[in-house]
Amino acid sequence: MDLDFRDDVFDEDTDLDGLLNRTDQDDDNDGGTDCAELGLTGDVADFFSINGDATRVSANEFQLTADLQNQSGQAWSNGKVDFGKSFTLDFEAFVGANDNPGADGLAMTFHNDPAGVNALGFVGVGLGSKDIINGIVLELDTYNNTNPPFLVTDIANDHTSIWKTSDQVNLLSSPIDFGNLENNTWHVVRIDWNVYDQILSYTVDGIFAGSYQDPNFINNIFGGETRVKFGFTAGTGGESNRQAIRMNNVCAIPLQVDTDDDFRDNAIDIDSDNDGIADNVEFQTTAAFVGMGTFVDANNNGIDNAYDPAEGGTALTFVDSDGDSIVDALDLDSDNDGITDNIEAQTTQGYLAPSGTFSATGVYTNYVGQSFFTAPVNTDAADLPDFRDTNSDNDSFLDINEGLLTVPSGAVGTNGLFNNGESADNFLDVNGNGYGSGIFNLKELDYDTLPNGSNAAPRSRDFEYRDNLHLPPPTMRHGKFFYNGNIQPSIFGR
Q1: At a CB cut-off of 8 Å and minimum separation 6, what does 192 contact?
Q2: Phi, then psi, of 363 in degrees rounded to 5
Q3: 2 versus 337: which is more confidently predicted?
Q4: Looking at the DSSP assignment, which residues form a beta bridge with residue 87?
Q5: What is the DSSP string of 211-235?
Q6: Cα separations in angstroms, 363 against 273, 359, 433
Q7: Is residue 259 pLDDT above 60, yes or no?
Q8: What is the pLDDT of residues 376-419, one digit of tens each?
């Protein structure tokens, strides 16, 4: 069984639904399955980059080396695994059919090499991992390299051991004899990381293959970095074998995805982009929205019946309203009008800027219990809520032209904001150039709305994208503002 990679030895029930995370397919009860929230859909091969002599064989299989001499192949994860949490990784390994001679074996490697997915290790005895920076290897070694000039610690039979990528002599675990692994058979491998005891261990065909414990594991192995690349490498030298790996379940890939950097993986974060709108709302279309009622889970899989097809519900398909290839739940501007979802979800007058601190469920603390979190504002009450409505006030002008002081244009960043509408492509500032220091940086042509929006009234006195009562702007006479002939306070700051 593929264990849930957010588990630790003290199994958690994150959403308190009575089901432990290891068997809960929706750990945060937001209606989206954990795999979908972490982007773990499609082919296993799509989540890895291959280099050296490695090739993609199928949707779930990589050949690391062909049965040729002096090969070195790698398949590295595009994402990272988090050693700050326990995880389990299951896969199958094939180390060839050539036994005596046959060489050299393959390795499961975790590393913090600056080269990332381009990291290359030494061929042959190095199993494609030797000399990679800041890494650890769990090997299936099929050749005895104890003779000079190779300075390694091997035994005659096929064997396993753990070693640092910088030191193949002083092993971190002693070699364990596995007889003959080059038997034209796929071998089942399981890797376990126990964060509480700081132990990395593995088994091959259910048999213990080695372990390494270090109370200062992260610093000594990865140079202090908790999130690291992982993958599979292999090498051949004067002798050779076809060597490959395969993974049958894309959900078994232990990638940790925390889109908004709030230290809550998307699978246990009910607002995965920090925009102040619940993932459950953004997963669904407005027209077909099914709200979250009392949690009912008849088949005990962790998915609410309302969203579980097996119980007559409708599976949530992640919506991308603006077609920018970023789903709304991970998009800070779901309608690409330049005005962020965080601003459009709330009324102008009642706007709450993000507090900067997060609840246990990944929501800004000052947004917990707010109505806009589950029912975003719909200014014109005519069609879509503002965060999906390209004309929020139903006037003759699109929001993209009535919103930011500079009309958004050009490329869109990974967070869904136009590059010219933000200073950095991240989720730390969910409003880009639209709001800052208590002031909205939005168009207001008739100057009847305060810069902080505190006197706004939807569709009559508001920023242009929410104001379809466009009055002439005030005039200045003798140092005072006049509006329709009446003196106005000098409060607009424009």
Answers
A1: 86, 87, 88, 199, 200, 201, 202
A2: -110, 140
A3: 337
A4: 193
A5: EEE-TTHHHHHHTT-SEEEEEEEEE
A6: 9, 5, 22
A7: yes
A8: 999 999 899 999 999 999 998 999 999 999 999 989 999 999 99
CA distance 10 to 3: 14
- The token pair at 61 is 């299989």
Concatenate the DSSP letters of all residues of 172-189 into one string: SEEEEE-S---SS--EEE
- Average pLDDT of 96-102? 88
What is the maximal distance between C-alpha atoms in the chain? 99
Domain boundaries 40-252, CATH class: mainly beta
pLDDT on residue 437: 94
Q: Which helix (H) or strand (E) holds 63?
A: strand 61-65
Find all residues with CB under 8 Å of 109, minimum gap 6, and list them.
Answer: 121, 129, 132, 135, 136, 137, 138, 165, 230, 231, 232, 233
Which is nearest to 91 in space by CA: 203, 4, 174, 201? 203
Phi, psi dihedrals of residue 365, rounded to the nearest 5°? -60, -35
Which token pair is 366?
């000052």
- For residue 324, CA distances in Å to 11, 270, 411 come to 38, 22, 10
Output helix, strand, coil percentages for the chain, rounded to the nearest 5.
15, 25, 65
Domain boundaries, the chain: 40-252, 263-494
CA–CA gap between residue 303 and residue 32 (Å, rounded)? 8
Residue partners of 485: CB distance under 8 A and separation at least 6: none
- Residue 341 CA to residue 156 CA, distance in Å, equals 63
Structure tokens at 486: 């009446």
Single-letter code of the amino acid located at 2: D
Q: Which two tokens stand for residue 150?
A: 């190779």
Give 418: exposed, middle or buried? Use CB within 10 Å, 0-12, 13-18, 19+: buried
pTM for the whole thing? 0.74
Q: Return the half-sphere exposure (C-beta side, CA atoms, 13 A cut-off) of residue 484.
A: 5
Give the burial string for 349-378 (b: 16+ CB within 10 Å, else e): bebebbeeebbebbbbeebeebebbeebbb
